[in-house]
Predict the 3D structure of the following.
Amino acid sequence: MTDYAAQGKTRPYNVVHLNSCHTHMSYYTCLSRSASAAGTIILQGFEPSIVTRGCAKYLRQELREQELLDEITRLRYEGSLPPCVVGYTRNPLITCGCGPVLCMACMSPFCGL
């Protein structure tokens, strides 16, 4: 089963063909459809570096932006968001005039320590 065919399905016996997967996300999609490890059958070999190398630059950036948005949401909820942070969509919030830089002491983008 390819990663595309595997979406949304759980199988007691999951036969996967990982040669058609080109990213770690495709591997995850195929393998996570198995009900158990014992029921997973991998056809042919596969490229282990796809799951052992670091994640792509775009994915690291996406995860960093998600953390920033999470922190902005928390600060807005607590009423402690600096007034220079304005906007309701992703790009204006992340690129506000404060220029969010994470404080290494508390991991807050707006601490200023």
